[in-house]
Amino acid sequence: xxxxxxxxxxxxxxxxxxxxxxxxxxxxxxxxxxxxxxxxxxxxxxxxxxxxxxxxxxxxxxxxxxxxxxxxxxxxxxxxxxxxxxxxxxxxxxxxxxxxxxxxxxxxxxxxxxxxxxxxxxxxxxxxxxxxxxxxxxxxxxxx
Length: 144
Fold this sequence. Notes:
alpha+beta, Ribosomal Protein S5, domain 2, 4 strands, 4-stranded mixed β-sheet
């Protein structure tokens, strides 16, 4: 496993490797097509449950955010916030973060925005799973 759960006795690894990235147009399109999103500050976060037990992150920064240097800086800051705090967040989701034009924030602010949205998205997906599991059950028999 790439990183360990905080309840585990093994230390956490604060890396951001290939397994942590959302890659490819199909993966981004699938997350976007799930139409489950929340926003906090300059971040718009889409989520889709995945088969892995950890979070995967994909970033999208439009040209309206500035030149390439500025856009890459936004991506580095959000990636760093994700890398440092992901062990505290619920796992098992593919995340696509759309960064909107804004003035640069501190890493802690990006982490706070990510945490808010990821928690709300997790609640949304849990409610959906409960609703679908309840609807799949057979109705109780009528009283005699």
